[in-house]
Design goal:
Elements lengths: L3 H11 L2 H14 L4 H13 L3 H14 L4 H11 L24 E5 L6 H4 L7 E7 L2 E5 L5 E4 L2 H12 L3 E9 L4 E9 L13 H41 L1
Antiparallel strand pairs: 1-6, 2-3, 2-5, 3-4, 5-6
Length: 242
């Protein structure tokens, strides 16, 4: 049988907030001071639109652990612009996931950390990017290693970062083994004025297709000229025979 704590974490990762509330409340019946369960319960409550109750729970966490980073961060978020409930009662974590061509990209991390570390992440959580040994490492707010960017994307971004571009990263989706993040360009250096940070696959394919199509048309035109030339010879020969 799957342990209750594991079930509670899984429901949160899946975004099943009603089940997350129930399971974490069951854990708190066993231990009312379970800080992890309190944090998960608060986040689930906030995600369901019960911001007031979420704040109360986070405040309880801070009574038990004054410097708890999860409670501090989320309480601050709920007290500011980032924690406003939408008209349907769901928590609007942020508008950071609005994608802009050339300025944002959704990326699956490689060489991800242990699932115990990943399991503490939440959708919308702010991450940090660090360039080390010509690679880009991704860390959570507690500076724990989360994963790395694939080399092709990492190498491209390093060039832009060294040139003065600035980026932000957020958790988009997460499960026990997979972390997908969104990276957003927040400042473009003047030297890169006309260079997008990210090039979409679709655009690349479109360009390649156009080049291929142009090449094919050119070849076809060459063949057409040859055919026309041969016909002209035939016509000429025919005229002479008359």
């Amino acid at each position: 049988m799957i342990p209750l704590k594991t079930q509670a974490i899984q429901t949160a990762l899946q975004g099943d907030w009603q089940a997350a509330v129930t399971l974490n409340q069951m854990l708190l019946e066993e231990d009312p001071n379970d800080i992890d369960a309190l944090n998960r319960l608060a986040f689930a409550k906030a995600s369901l639109g019960d911001v007031k109750e979420a704040k109360t729970i986070y405040q309880k966490v801070l009574l038990l652990d004054t410097n708890n980073p999860i409670a501090i961060k989320n309480l601050h978020r709920l007290s500011g612009a980032g924690g406003k409930p939408t008209t349907n009662g769901q928590l609007q974590v942020s508008n950071v996931f609005i994608e802009e061509p050339g300025k944002t990209k959704v990326i699956e991390l490689i060489n991800t950390a242990d699932k115990k570390v990943i399991g503490q992440l939440h959708n919308g959580e702010h991450l940090t990017l660090a360039v080390k040994r010509m690679k880009i490492f991704v860390h959570d707010p507690q500076k724990q290693y989360i994963g790395m960017l694939p080399d092709d994307i990492g190498n491209r971004l390093i060039k832009f970062i060294d040139g003065g571009n600035q980026y932000e990263a957020y958790v988009k989706t997460v499960n026990n083994t997979k972390v997908i993040i969104l990276i957003k360009e927040v400042r473009r250096a003047p030297k890169f004025k006309n260079q997008p940070s990210f090039i979409s696959i679709e655009k690349t394919r479109f360009t390649l297709d156009n080049k291929s199509s142009h090449k094919q048309k050119k070849e076809n035109r060459g063949k057409a000229v040859d055919v026309d030339y041969n016909l002209s010879d035939d016509d000429s020969d025919g005229d002479e025979s008359l």
